[in-house]
Structure formats: structure tokens, C-alpha cells
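Aim 2, interim progress. The first record below pairs a target sequence with its C-alpha cells.
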Amino acid sequence: MSVILIGLNHRTAPLSLLERTTISSAHLLKALHGLSECENISGAVALSTCHRTEIYASATAFHGAAKTVKEFLSDFTFVSEEELNSHLYSFTDTDVVSHLFCVVAGLDSAVLGEYEIQGQVKRAWKIAEEEKVSDSALNNLFHRALETGKRIRTEAPMMKSTQSVSDAAVSMAVEKLGTLKGAKAVVLGSGEMGQRLTTLLTRAAAKNISIANRTYKNAATMAKQHGCEAIHLDEIGKALADADVLFSSTGATTLLVERDEMERAMIARNHKPLLAVDIAVPRDIDPLSRDLEGLTLIDIDDVRRYVSDTHVDSEEDMDRAQEILNQEVTRYEENVQTTKLAPFISEFRRQICEISQDEFERYGGRLKSLEPAERETVEELVHSIINKVLHNPSVAIQKVDEKTANELAQALKELFKF
């Protein structure tokens, strides 16, 4: 059985396609159970964020499973296979491990080292596990990936000062406006990114922060936590009439602020400049609003470009992160190999020990003259010799590559007839 990955991300697909292939939280369970019913798949985890949509699956047949997942993605997202294929990547086994470890550590993110992804991966896996869609192979893989991400963030110095997408968005807003001190802000979304945006705005001394969400109760809860004002979604236009900046980061699958609503808000403020930062995927604010007088609209692609232009990587830090990643991938592969061979090695040792015990009992009559303690010593000696003879082959077979291990296992089966 192999573990495969089929996906697309910010490096391989434009924002317009990423937002069409996003699997929203509202549709995640449907996607997971749909995958669980697919041929050639025994387990699956679906990871969908603003940077990527990826399906991890345990495949009983690699090519069949890869084809099945591609067809599933196409059917589920209503994007043709022809359009998807040129943007998808496919990995198997060790390449999947290396990629997922990179993702969790933030090494594959637009904002290098961003920490939001670790929580997103953990949630995706836990949901699949709770729904009994993820299997033992995937559970082991994601558990080790999260441990690796934690180690890299702890031991690689660059991770101690990294940003999230929300941090980058606020930094970009500060650069555009000069300062957020005293600014009136509106935050659309009360999820993890919305929470972070509000925290950063508070630290920057923004004033009169209004929080809106599709579920007003969630907006009210978050507003209470931060000492802000909660507003209903249909009050966004009114709130924008005298706002300086709007941040949006919901998980909605359709536009929440249409161009007409934004145009009315701009007219109400006499086209006084307004900065709108939309880091949601799919987007919350109609991109057609860009042409409105006085409005500066920034989306996730703009934030990625900003990070790319302003971030300076430390070669030493990157080397250390890569070193840790390589160590953990190797350790994981060795563990998987040992786990796969454990039943064989156990059976091999059992049969040899059984033969030795049978022979010891067959010679029981010749050992009658021995005292019980002497007889026990002889028995221990026999088992000690057997254990020493079996030790090196048992260890060696766990250290070679999978192909060689399987060949050795088959040879031992033929030689010892078990």
C-alpha cells in the first residue's frame, strides 16, 4: 500500500482557480466521506487553505487511486479535469512525507514559516480521524509531520520571528497607510485569521474596531474578547462609511461584499480613500470593486507578492530547517519499514524458537541425568544461541531499502520453508 498526494497550491495555480477548488469547512465532511467511498482508497485526509487544496490518501493501487482522486476533485469542485491537470502535482510515499513535513513547518508557504498552517493541518487530520476516514498509515504520517513542524519551529532560529498571513496583511496595510494608530477598522470574519487581525490592530492602537461575521453570535463573542464592537453582516456598508481600513478573512464560498454594496459605501464617504485587505480564499470582496474611485483593494496574491519582495531568507537558517526535515523524513521512513517488517520478523523468530524447543524436548530422555538447574541452564544456552544467530539478520533486514528487505524476506521464507 502507498500513500499518495494529489493537490494544487499557490505556486502551481492562480488565485482564480484556488478559490474554485477550495473545500470549505461546510463541505469538508461530504468531501471526506465521498473520498472514503472511492475505489483504490482505504483512507483520506483533505487539506484546504488559502494557499492549497490537497488530498492525502492511502492507495491500494497507486495509478488507480491517483486517477480516482483527480476525478473526485474535478466532480466535487465542478472544475474540469482538463483545466485541473496542468496545475496539479502528484506525489507518492517518500515524496509525500517530505512535502507534508515542509507544509506543516511553513516551508512551503507564501509567508515562509507561517504558523497558521500547523493548526490548519492538525484540524484537517483530526476531522478525518474523528470521521473514521483517516487510516493508521495516515494517522502515523500526520502525527509525525506535526512533531517535525514543532521541532523545526523550535530549533530553526528563523521560525522565532516569522509572520502569519494575517501579520503580513497588517504590515502591508501599515505600509500603505503610514500607521494604523487611531485608524477606524472593520474586520470581517471571526476565525483564526480574524482573531489574529484584531489582535494586531489592537496592538497597533487602531480605534473603534468593528467585527462582522456571517454568524453574529461569533462576532459578538470575539468582540467581547477584544473590547470591540460587533455588527451584523448587513451593516458592513454603514460601517465602511467612515472607516479607514477593512480586513476580510472568512471561509465563505461566495462573495460577501458585492461591487454594488462597495460602490454605495464609497459614494456615502464621498470617495474618501479606503483600504480593503481581503485575504480570504475564495475572496470575500468582489474583485470588480478595484476600479471604484478611492478604493484600494488588496487580495491574497498582493500579500504574497509583498512578502516575496520584503522577506529576506537566512541561508544558515534555511539549511538548518532543511537538515532537520531530512533527518525526520529518514527517521519516519525507517520507522515505517520496521513496522512493515515487524510481523515477518516476529514470525521468523517464533518458528526458529519453536524448532529449537521441539528439538530440546526430543532430547529430553538423554538429559534425565541432569539436575533441574542444569537442565534449565542448557535450555537457556540453546535459546541464547538462537537469539544471537537471529539478531544480526533481524536488525539488518530493517536497515535496507524496502525492495531489498522484501527480497531478503522472500529468500528467508524459501530457505526456512515458512
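The second target in this work package is listed in the same format:
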Amino acid sequence: MPTNPYPYRLKRRLQRFISPQPALPARLRRPRVLVVGCGAIGQRLLRHWQQQSGRSGQHGLRIMVLTSSPDKRAQFQALGATPIVGNLDVPASLQRLRGWAHYLLHLAPPPGRGVEDSRTRHLLRTVQQRPGRLRALVYVSTTAVYGDSGGQWLDETQAPAPSQPRGQRRWQAEQQLIRYGKSPRAARTVRLRVPGIFAPERLASGLAQRLAQGQPVLHREEDVWSNRIHADDLARACLLALWRGRAQRCLHISDGQPSLMGDYFDRVADHLGLPRPPRLSREAIAAHVSPAMLSYLQDSRRLRSERMQRELGLVVQPVDLPVYPPK
């Protein structure tokens, strides 16, 4: 018979009570968030976190940003984040990210060519080298994964059928995330499908220039349905998805008020005081727009966003002002 009167597990508990381990420093107890691809949306989130927690952030978050541009380090530091220089196209540069984050926001676009997303593959391999610490991974995708639905209303149960390489790359990235989400000790994985993004600062660039140059849109009877989301609402959706998004879930992030693209460009022109764009047939317009713009004119769909409202508790503002075509 054993001489120890206490069961083994009880003895271990007593030992921890009598001689507790020293507490971790506060800076190590705070949730750690890694932002990959910190462009306009990521920087909106950084500003939000900075306003909420302040630079000291004793009870806030520790934020790390992966950037491939060393000259942006000071910019991210001013927003309260720790920049790490690395490149998703160079897997060896990602080693410092292993096992660091509790939450990961993946905003980086795929490569500009092909139908695969090697950047997401490299990021997931890095994450999986030290599994278990990461609690949630949010990936910002695009509604181009659906291809052309002829203007039909779509919810998240619609099967993807991308018709353009940009949508094929995004769907391939989503498939990688779905497989990762099924692996042992995987993080809670959430995919956000995003249409055109409206940001006021975009008015002075490409869209205004396009209208000033008189680039055409489709005749109304041939026009395509497009969808939008305000950049501030997209940033809020990313934040909420990190905490509230369900595992292996896909969500539409949209204002739920689609319109014909040409009608929307007319409103943009009126807002900017520019002439409305001329209207051409689908056959004739190919000679007057870029291949990228032509690809946007080949997909027509309308998005339902009730799941976003129900599961994230996010109510967004309608986008009445200019926005770029879907990315």
C-alpha cells in the first residue's frame, strides 16, 4: 500500500497552492494580435485600438504588424504596433511569427498571377509549426469567389464558382484555411467575403480620374449588380470576427444595398460635379477599359448580409458615395 495519504493529483494541486509559480508580467498576459497585410483597413484597426487602449495599453492588446517595407516601421510604431519586417513570399522571413500571436488578422492579398495563393500557404505553415497558442484567425477574402450569378441574391451557402483569376486565387486561399481549420489544435477560422470598399480618401484618386477621362460603363439593360461596404465598417467587422466569429464560418461583409454599377457611377459623378460616364454595349466597351475593369463588368451578384448582423451584431451604414469596383 502507498504511504502517501493523498492522491497524486491532489498532491500536485496542494503543491501549486503552497508554492505557486510566479505570475507572468502584465505585458505577457495581454492578448497578442498579429496583423498581416496592414494597409488602409489594418491601419484603421490600429487607430481604433490606440484610441481604446492608449499607447501604454496596460489592459489592452499587444499588436504586431508584419510588413515587407522597412520604411513603414515608424508609421506603425506611431500607431502603437510593433512592426516586424517579413515577406509572405519569403517563408524564412516569417520565423519570428511562430507561436507569438493569440489572434491573427490576415489582410494580405494573394500574388497577382496564377490561381493559387502561395502567401497564405506560407503563413499557415508558419502558424502550424507551433500549434495550440493561436485562438482565432480571420481572413479577408472577396466576393469574386462566386463568379457571375446573373444578378441573383446570394447568401453564404452559395457554392463558390470563380470565373476570374482574382477570384480563383481567393477561393484557393479559402480552401487552404478550411483544411487548416479541420486540423488538430487549429485556431477558430473565420472567412470574411468583401465586395467593393468605400473610403472617402479614394475620391481623389482612381475613380475620379476614371470619370474625368470619360471612361464608359455598360448600358443599363446589360449592367451588372455590385455591392459595397464602408472601410470603417469593414474594420469593425474584422475586429468583431476576431472575438465573435464562429469556427469555420464564412460571412458576407456588405451594406446589403446593391445597385447597378453604372447607376452608382452616375451618383459618383454627380457627387464630384463631373459628367456622367457614357454608356456602351458589352461588345463595344472592351476596347475602352482595362482588362482589370473588364473583369469586374463580367460578374453580377447581390449579397445578403443577415448572417453578419446576426452573428457579429454589426449594423453598418449604407454606402451612398463613391467606391472602387470590387477587389
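Residues 17-22, 55-59 have pLDDT under 50 and may be disordered. This observation will shape the mutagenesis plan for the next reporting period.
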